[in-house]
Please model this.
Amino acid sequence: MKHIKILGTGCSNCKATLKTIEAAAQAADADICLEKVEDIGEIMSYGVMSTPGVVIDGKVVHAGGVPDRKTVESWIKA
Amino acid sequence: MFEAFARLLVYQWLNLDPASHLGSAVHFFVMDTTKIFFLLFIIIYIMGLLRALLSPEKVRAYVRGKPKWLARTLAITLGAITPFCSCSSVPLFIGFVEAGIPLGVTFSFLIASPMINEVAVVILVGILGWKLAALYVAAGLTVAYIGGIIMEQFKPERWVEDYVWKIHMGESQAVAVDTSLSGRHRYAMNEIKEIIGRIWKWVLAGVALGAAFHGYVPEAWVVEHLGGKGNWFAVPGAVLLGVPLYSNATGVIPIAEAMLGKGVAVGTTLALMMSIAALSLPEMLILRKVLRWPVLAIYASVLAVAFMLVGWGFNFIT
Model:
């Protein structure tokens, strides 16, 4: 099972990112564990300054801006 | 092209009188809306295709450990070419502090970033011409450089929230990007959606205000009260007016266009543009998460004074 973390302090882009991932996971029927990280200290501990960021199994795969649907699907599949 | 389209739509199809207030306001609105959104799509798509946008993580790495003048110059240049969403101000601020970048340099970055970005510059050239675009950019860069130095004199470190000093930032990890043409295209389209989704309301509000000014404010009144050199109070007035008004730098441009068209002095217009783009209550509230009120008050005052000097300066020499 994939552990996906969304790093963001709660701006609209962070919420949009969460929704995109949720929708893609549901469509692919993927077994993932989604977690939202809002603590600024924890966000920064991943070396991310531009939010939203996405972390999959401890690795940063995305930072800054909402990722597009196709990219999100490739994360879930891989 | 946009002019012709606006003429056709407003005067022929809607049958409005070109000499009326409403007709001239609606014409302005249609022309600027189509022109600005067209330019926005093009420029954002090209920037997205090139993936030319620098991330703040890279900016931090470049600026870190450089001598102060070089760090400041880099921070301002990068701030000017990186459009970052104001919700990133807090992580950005913390990241800079954690990297040991002097606070004065960070302030220079924070001043330059909302005022100047490549999208606004392209629109500025498209709407107001390259001369005014160059003036605006030069004035913005100067204010950012000197503003940061002045902030430093107040020793702003004492007003940084304690928790900021305790955060340890992890090593930046390289994010793999899809550099194939289709990947670039998807990225560019996504950028258009994201950036226009964020700023369209500021642009429309700006065009609407500009249109109202263009259509309804009589030119003679403007020239008497807001033009020329005798009206020294118009500049501080413009700066004060800009504080409660908040807009993206792009949204300010149509307002400036309408003002200049009616004969408002160049310096007064520049002062208002800068004040609207860089001095705003929402931005202050976001920065309040990392900085205490005294330093925010100093920051706002330094900017206000700087914008007034820019305004008076340009009104004096033109």
Remarks:
- The mean pLDDT of chain A is 85.
- Chain A has three helices and four strands.
- The beta strands of chain A are 2-7, 32-37, 53-56, 59-63.
- Helices of chain A lie at 12-28, 40-45, 69-77.
